[in-house]
Amino acid sequence: MNGAMDSAMDNSEKQCELAISVKTSLEQYFKDLDGQPPHAVYDMLMGCVEKPMLQFVLNHAGGNQSKTADILGLNRNTLRKKMQQYNIE
Fold this sequence. Notes:
About 75% of the residues lie in helices and about 0% in strands. The protein folds into 2 domains: about 35 residues; about 50 residues, Homeodomain-like (Arc Repressor Mutant, subunit A), CATH 1.10.10.60. It is built from 5 helices and no strands.
């Protein structure tokens, strides 16, 4: 990346506590591997973040799936598929 993009990315990361938490957790994960090769990091991370996010927003929306999908910017069918994937009722 160029300097301007690096700087913009650094600023957005500084403003997003979630990004900092993810980076810190990944650093610890790779450290804990102790030389073992990483595997399926994307799926692991998404599973750790996506399920609690879906549960929180669904609760915030009072269980209304249409409202939840709208808040998340997802199609309602996509939300239902993800809820099924994570056994969320």
